[in-house]
Design a protein that fits this description.
This protein folds into three domains: 61 residues, Uridine Diphospho-n-acetylenolpyruvylglucosamine Reductase, domain 2 (2-Layer Sandwich); 141 residues, Uridine Diphospho-n-acetylenolpyruvylglucosamine Reductase, domain 3 (2-Layer Sandwich); 93 residues, Uridine Diphospho-n-acetylenolpyruvylglucosamine Reductase, domain 1 (Alpha-Beta Complex). 21% of the residues lie in helices and 28% in strands. The chain has seven helices and 21 strands. The relative contact order is 0.15. The mean pLDDT is 95. The structure holds uridine-diphosphate-2(N-acetylglucosaminyl) butyric acid.
């Protein structure tokens, strides 16, 4: 275990805002998790967080690595990956081994341990579809648990780990169930219309990598946290109302009564695509991505509120922020706010 104090967080998250953490703990062995308290905040590789200028909560990073096959039968292989593994490297390894199920999720930034928390999803697949179990440390009861996927409350971009269990479980490892004879998932428009034949998981993997590299900015060059807003789920009545003014509203069907509208479309229609104010802006090539040029978390948050207000005023739809907001504005912490 390593413990650092007054840590500058710029290099610890992909939005790269100026922020300082009171304490950062690096966990290097599973048993060390017993030192954690409910108030500690576990971060993965920092690809889905906004840090406000001062982080009073103790931050914890899990440097727990390893990938192994735990079971198999004729059709499936169960693979256990430790929380600290890089997500994309894990996907790549599964593709190389010929195991199907995660190839559509290539190049999503972050760690294996963070994947179930927000139920990462892309190109027609959500990670919950291939999760068998989640192994975690229960900070409330101080015991190790193995949760079945059906218990985890997975929904679009969410799970109980992000809501009712936020202060309870720390994910240690995830067991995935992958197919020996992959079923390709090509229903998402950009894959269905891909200019090359997609007839293997390798082909899908490379197509997803190419699509993402083409439209999402590299955080090392333009600091960002991927999608900054959720795609709002609305009643069909809201869609019908929108269609009175816009005949081309894109949507994904959620169920008989609800559709998901791309937040990028709403933001672009408000004229915010490529819009920049001070140190923060909306990416010019994809309106769902917020770019931090040199701002701090407080500036990012204020900018996001402006986007939310603009979309609300124009469409009556309230966007919600996808990354987790951690920490405090310094003034508030100093008692001057
Ligand atoms: N669109 C615009 N303007 C833009 C970009 C997109 O109007 O600047 C509209 C287009 O109609 C497009 C639609 O939005 O067809 C959807 O865009 P896209 O396919 O890029 O997907 P998204 O809904 O914006 C979601 C995920 C992404 C994931 C893609 C692909 C969320 C919040 N985001 O984005 O996830 O890669 O689908 O499956 O659900 C991430 O979480 O970091 C992330 C990138």
């Amino acid at each position: 275990m390593q413990v650092f104090h007054e840590v500058e967080l710029k290099d610890w998250h992909t939005l790269a805002g100026q922020a300082v953490a009171r304490e950062l703990m690096i966990i290097e062995a599973q048993e060390e998790l017993q030192a954690l308290n409910a108030g500690d905040v576990v971060i993965g590789s920092g690809s889905n967080v906004v840090f406000l200028p001062w982080v009073e909560e103790r931050l914890v990073r899990l440097n727990l690595f390893g990938v192994s096959v735990v079971d198999e039968n004729k059709a499936y292989v169960w693979v256990r990956a430790m929380a600290g593994e890089n997500w994309h490297a894990f996907v790549q390894e599964m593709v190389v081994r010929g195991l199907g199920g995660v190839e559509n999720l290539a190049l999503i930034p972050g760690t294996v341990g963070a994947a179930p928390v927000q139920n990462i999803g892309a190109y027609g697949v959500e990670v919950c579809e291939v999760i068998a179990q989640v192994e975690a440390y229960d900070r409330w009861k101080r015991e190790w648990v193995c949760l079945q996927a059906s218990e985890c409350g997975f929904v679009y971009r969410g799970s109980f780990f992000k809501s009712r269990w936020l202060t309870r479980y720390v994910i240690v490892a995830v067991v995935f169930v992958l197919r020996k004879n992959p079923i390709l998932r090509l229903d998402y428009a950009e894959l269905a219309q891909y200019p090359m034949p997609l007839n293997s998981i390798e082909a899908v993997f490379f197509a997803v990598v190419a699509i993402r590299q083409n439209k999402l900015p590299d955080p090392k060059i333009l600091p960002n946290a991927g999608s900054f807003f959720h795609n709002p789920v609305v009643d069909r009545a809201v869609l019908l109302h929108l269609e009175e003014s816009y005949s081309d509203v894109p949507r994904y069907v959620v169920d008989d009564n609800r559709v998901k509208i791309p937040a990028a479309w709403l933001i672009e229609r408000c004229g915010f695509k490529g819009y920049r104010e001070g140190n923060v802006g909306i990416y010019a090539h994809h309106a769902l991505v917020l770019i931090n040029y040199e701002g701090g978390g407080d500036e990012i948050y204020a900018f996001a509120q402006k986007i939310i207000a603009g979309v609300q005023a124009r469409f009556g739809i309230t966007l919600t922020i996808e990354p987790r907001l951690i920490g405090q504005n310094k003034e508030r912490f100093d008692g001057t706010d």
